[in-house]
Amino acid sequence: MRPIELSDRLGRWSSGRGPLYVLLAGRLRRLIDDGELPPGVLLPPDRALAGALAVGRTTVVAAYELLRSEGRITRRQGSGTRVAGAPSASGVEDAPVDPIFLDSLEARDDDVLLAICAAPGDPPPQVAEAYARIVPELAQISGDIGYYPYGHLVLRQAIAARYVDRGVPTSPDQILVTNGGQQALSLLAHALLSPGDQVLVEAPTYPGALEALREEAAVLRGLPVGLEGFEAAVRERRPALAYVIPTHHNPTGAVLPSLARQRLARLAAATDVPLVEDEVPADLGFPGSPRPRPLAACSDAVISIGSLSKSVWGGLRIGWIRAAAPLITRLARVRAVHDLGGNVPAQLAAAHLVANLDALDLATELKARHDHLRALLAEHLPTWEVPTIRGGQCLWVRLPHGDGNSFAQTALRHGLAILPGSGLDVTGSSDAYVRLHFRARPEQLTEAVTRLTTAWHAYHPPANRVTPRPAIAI
């Protein structure tokens, strides 16, 4: 592609807030994700594009490097800079999508076991019972069009009551109901971030959060799990936001100790950095595992995200944000532009489920599936490093040699889709890991390990493998 052609497509790319390289990367990212720059397309050289855009070469180099770190482009000496992915024979290109979302967006292949998206696939009987209970309530509705940008009051009251029971004083006006935890992340990123803003994230962390933050052209800085080193990072970078999963961390399963929670929450409040606490996995503790107090119990500055999609059923798209009432009002206005409100019957049913969430006894089955997968891995793949965890839905497995990306390709050829660790870590330090979830049925987990074992015996790490460099500005 000639530089003048690309500059025409970029349009008014520099008319925004933030460093020029971040604005340029943001516009290029949108063109790639929308398919206007399809996989395999050759992008202009650094100097040529810089001349066409009347900017310094370092601006283009930094923008390209940011996109390379996200996996959206490839840069090789001698072959130039290209949009990542192989060209489609049909001529119709797909936008790059994080692997975690592929099993939702792509057509199902019955010959491939999908071990990427971790969510319960079998709704418990309480879901059907909750819907049955709301039938009389629906029959009595009159004069109500059902638009609730904040969420239905009955559900907001139930969620607020659950926080109160856990030692976090909360009123319904501090709750915004969302269509799952992913929408909650996207709303917060859109409302709180501008292009070029620094965001502190754990390395590794939930890849869906990374995608939501990158969508707003944020610059991500990775810290160890638990945001260790938070205070020094705040002094150095002045981040606009920090994101943490303190309980049954995705993907490592770690639980942040009580004193570390208090220190992190208080530091965030003292430095005026909004701290987003992702509590989606917090209800996934194994039997006998005490549930720590939320970070929000330590500071009013903490913003909490929750969801029923991981604890009850993936198809129950009910999530929420708990925050100060003024921020909830701001988020509701943002949400109303895109979505006038969620499904009312689902929210009414969810109110019954939230009120009785601890009585569902989902932990016993979750622990049994964890034990089943871990025992199979120990038997068939004893050289793999599999951690001990107290809850969650994933195992963060370190391979004895090779890398997660190339092994994931081998596994796919043997009928199993798994998530390589590199896509979960902005520092590039998790190349040797893969994430395996244990939410599937026991017979599916058994078949998955059979295919993993076959793939591992057939796996040959690439001889010229290069460890990915950290993303820029981390």
Shape: globular
Low-confidence parts: 88-97, 104-109, 466-474
Number of helices: 16
Helical fraction equals 25-40%
How many β strands by DSSP? 15
Any idea what the radius of gyration is? 23 Å
N-to-C span: 31 Å
Overall residue-averaged pLDDT value: 88
Major β-sheet profile:
7 strands, mixed
- Strands side by side in the biggest sheet: 5-11-10-9-8-6-7
Q: Structural class of the secondary elements?
A: alpha/beta
Give an overview in words.
The chain has about 475 residues and is of the alpha/beta class. About 40% of the residues lie in helices and about 10% in strands. Helix 3 crosses helix 4 and helix 8 packs parallel to helix 9. The chain is globular and about 65 Å long. The relative contact order is 0.13.
